[in-house]
Amino acid sequence: xxxxxxxARIETEYVNGVPNGIFRYWHEGGACLxxxxxINGLWHGxxxxxxxxxxxxxxxxxxxxxxxxxxxxxxxxxTDEVPMLRGTIHGVxxxxxxxxxxxxxxxxxxxxxxxxxxx
Length: 119
Known about the structure:
By secondary structure, the chain is mostly beta strands. It has strands at residues 2-5, 8-15, 18-26, 32-39, 42-43, 45-50, 56-62, 67-72, 78-85, 88-89, 91-97, 100-108, 111-117.
């Protein structure tokens, strides 16, 4: 299935309404920004994140939804690092702005237990 949104497009495969198979998110300029594989809706295998020029920013390993999901801004700086456990946020989430760590959040199976704001 291919969906389009403002020039960008998502390519993914479904089985019984659940993402299963290849997943690709294409930027309106033509670069594949995110490419990976899903099993029962969960990331599995290598999740590749690229910049708009196609260069690789990150490769994260997932095992049935367990791994670290990283988010980058348009300047190719990592802004968020989100650990996942079987598809649920679990562990220490870090958020950066302009290269500076601004918050650290502590999650236990999707529940936020604490947030620390950096000075």
